[in-house]
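Per your request, structure below.
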């Protein structure tokens, strides 16, 4: 898998974390450097951990499903993409406002960790798909974590200016992320001669 594809996956997986960071930042009177560091580290850690766990699970099962590995990888990416599409349409109107006021001005580590798990579950399936196409996980996990940390930090820094616009366009961002994952899944099938 090429670095550009891994970067595309990382950006797609970071969209939910970015939206949460934007929404939280938008309702805060002040955003401190400690808030940015806290959000970035927690979201990045889970975004890097989940594909690693998925990869180990996939590696353990690989011998059982090696004849269909490309289909498993495609179906997992397809599942994540469909999940992103469904979430996009469940978000309601594009003009919907962020509903992060209930998180409080100094979010607890436990609550932040739960949000990080919820926004990184898709990465578990992506890690499983990496195992199916025999892609080592170290570099993708690092890229996914670093990209998530950077995008989360940028989202919080830009929260005051971009929060309303991001909330209005979160559906489009989710659909774009889903399209990236579907295209990568189709490329995996193409490389395995499914369309030949």
């Amino acid at each position: 898998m090429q670095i550009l594809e891994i970067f595309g996956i990382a950006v797609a997986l970071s969209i939910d974390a970015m939206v949460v960071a934007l929404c939280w930042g938008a309702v805060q009177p002040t955003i401190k450097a400690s808030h940015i560091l806290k959000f970035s580290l927690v979201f990045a850690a889970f975004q890097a951990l989940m594909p690693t766990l998925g990869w180990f699970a996939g590696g353990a099962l690989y011998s059982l499903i090696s004849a269909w590995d490309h289909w498993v990888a495609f179906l997992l990416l397809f599942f994540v993409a469909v999940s992103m599409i469904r979430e996009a349409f469940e978000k309601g109107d594009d003009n919907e406002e962020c509903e992060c006021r209930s998180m409080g001005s100094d979010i607890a580590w436990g609550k932040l960790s739960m949000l990080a798990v919820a926004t990184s579950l898709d990465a578990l399936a992506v890690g499983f798909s990496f195992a199916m196409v025999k892609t080592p996980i170290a570099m993708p996990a690092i890229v996914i974590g670093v990209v998530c940390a950077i995008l989360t930090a940028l989202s919080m820094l830009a929260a005051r200016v971009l929060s309303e616009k991001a909330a209005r366009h979160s559906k489009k961002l989710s659909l774009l992320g889903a399209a990236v994952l579907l295209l990568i899944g189709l490329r995996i099938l193409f490389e395995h001669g499914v369309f030949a």
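Residues 3-191 form one domain.

Regards,
D.
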